[in-house]
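## Example pair
The file below holds two records. Each record gives the amino-acid sequence first, followed by its structure token line.
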Amino acid sequence: MIAFILPLLAAASLSLSAQEEPATLSLTIDQAVDYALDNNRNVASARYDVLASEKGVWEAIAAGLPAVGGSASITDNLEVMTRIINFGGTPTAFKFGTQYDASIGVSASTLIYNASWLVGIQTAKLAATMAGQGLTLTTIETKENVINVYHLILTLKETLSIIDQNLENLNEILTSTRAMFSVGMAEATDVDQMQSNVTMLVNSRSSMLRSLEVNYNMLRFMLGVSIDTEINLTDTLDDILEKINVETLVAEEFKIEENINYKLIESQLMMSELSLKGAKATALPSLAGTYYYNNNGMGDEIAHMQYFPSSAIALQLQVPIFASGLRNAQIKRAKINFEKAQNEKSMISEQLLLQERQLRYNLLNANEQFKSQKSNIEIARRVVESFENKYSQGVASSLDLTQANNNYLTAQNNYISSLINLLQTKVAIDKLMNKL
């Protein structure tokens, strides 16, 4: 029966897995980001870190709270200890003990005051806060990576579209050149030149297709889907570019205290301060309390044992007196680390402010370059069309047409590069401003 049921369960499990992960995903850029945040492995690991740190807080608190334990034992004295005692000059053997001993007890202990414990609780709470900030940082970085790859795939597809258009145009010119060569109106070198141009574009197209697949696989990994999942990006470059308002981005105020890297360095400074407090706390006394109750039984028969209770309550005071300079060295080292953390906070603050200013400049430059290259590509296109007409009329040589076409391809590459630069700079400034 079990052998029959197990295959059914396995089949049902595979069926559910297939339902959970669609074979095709159609995603806008916002949907891609949301999907990644729900399924990305790095984000999931960061969430586990948050859950673990939350349990760590209670672990630190519970270490100083009352703890109760119980114990029970029974002993069979196979040979009861015998001693010889002199009574009136006559040595007499006496057995000390009984055949069976038993004990049942309960004990309780608690910290009453311990400075290191109190600092440890604060440290655990701060560690939980830092885990939450780590999750925020992982979330932001995942958003950044998904958006950049989404943009890159769209630009690669745009590049492929441009190459296909050029390839179609060059194939027509190659066909025309061969026809002209067949009637003696063109030379063999003209045909060779056109064929070389076509081959170069075919190779570029193949390379671009491979790059496109690599980036699709990267996006699949970020989304947490299988390598066989087909992804359809529904946003277009025009949709994305319409949402970019450079003037608004440049004029926006930078609030450094909202930046996640600034928050993390602040938390690290607080952690260094707590380490210093913890080092100082080791020089303070600690007080603990204990209580125990035992019921001890004795007898030669288990069923007829006699029990006698005992109990006690105690306070334990520990006062550090001398440690050969160990505690002093620990305090000094913690103080140095705290001052180092202060210096790092100042350094990170300055870096963030410098980065903010640089990104504003970069965004303005990227926007100007994009507009300029967009204009250049139209000029280069008109030049190519002019040389194509001249070449068909026999006024321009194949070398002239090749040079004009190369200039057009260069203008297209420059346009794509400026587009990528604009998109990446926009994402970078959004990340800095905590707007992702």
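Second record, same layout:
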Amino acid sequence: MKASIFLRALGLAGAVGAFAATPVSAADFYKGKTINLMVSSGAGGGYDLYARILGRHIDRHIPGRPNIVAQNMPGAGGMKLLNFAYKVAKQDGTVMFTLHQNLPMFQRMGARGVKYDARKIQGVGRLSAGNELLLASKASGIKSYKDLYEKEIIVGSTGASSNSTVYPYLARNMLGLKFKVISGYKSGTEVQLAMERGELQGMGSWSLGSMYASGPQYLKAGAMVPLVQFGPKREAEWPNAPTVMELDKTAQDKAALEVVVQGPEIGRSYWVGPGVPASRVKILRTAFNAMIKDAKFRSEFKRQRMLERFATGEEMEAVIKAIFAAPQSSIDRLRATMTKAGGGRCQDYSKSNVCRKKKKKKKKN
């Protein structure tokens, strides 16, 4: 009798142990969970608005229907968030984030402050993309990019690694267009408002997708002056503004700019960290792909006048691979251009061993 009781108890314990050891299925994982959707810019701009429409709709397509909570973490041109997502955030699929499009290039250049490897983050999908535009306000008196060979305009920047710094520096130091960059703004929205106040004479970067979402009034003819586009070909909305590829002066510059124009392809895309299990990445990708076909999502997307340029997570990862496949000579040319006299500091765009150390002045006796 005692033996049978012992065996039954042992069997029950074994069953309980086996049950406890059974992992939660990927499909059940998200039930009762919250996904933090982290945005690499301040509120109100393109990164923010596209992320929030994603957050309002993707939950319906994730098994277990988790809560989606948007959280802004601006700073260092998006690098603050990417470092956090890569090194600190949970790697279980409960943190999804936006990616500032020049950060893979910055890693490739060996820029200061990089604590991530963009080749290892995992793409979920992209809602929008488009060329980045350098533009002047109507009040600036500028009529076209040709005026900037003689006249300087002031634009605002959100950080050394931001589009609003990179593009004006490249346009000035590689193409000879006279942009002066003022840093310290917290978001693209702040830069836009500063331009409207007359504090700035233009913007060093505004993507077509963001303009559709946060400044559609600027799409009207005459609302501003389109100057130069960063992208592979001209957008239909800005037919008279050339791309940088049309203005490059040498084959070396062309090769370097081909790396840069990959950035806008990243657009308003969404990612998870390198340690998230493949089964959960698949759930999020499947949910994203279902969401962009969903009638309710598409209705709001159209109502909000957003720019549709959907892409899969796999396609986004391919863009990053292309950036890292660029020849070293192109990267060296970009670094030299960014740190040319009047541009950025070498230590912002290069590893310290690349930069020349300033000689200390000897004290006079």
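Notes on the second record: The longest strand covers residues 122-128. Residues 2-21 form the longest helix (20 residues).
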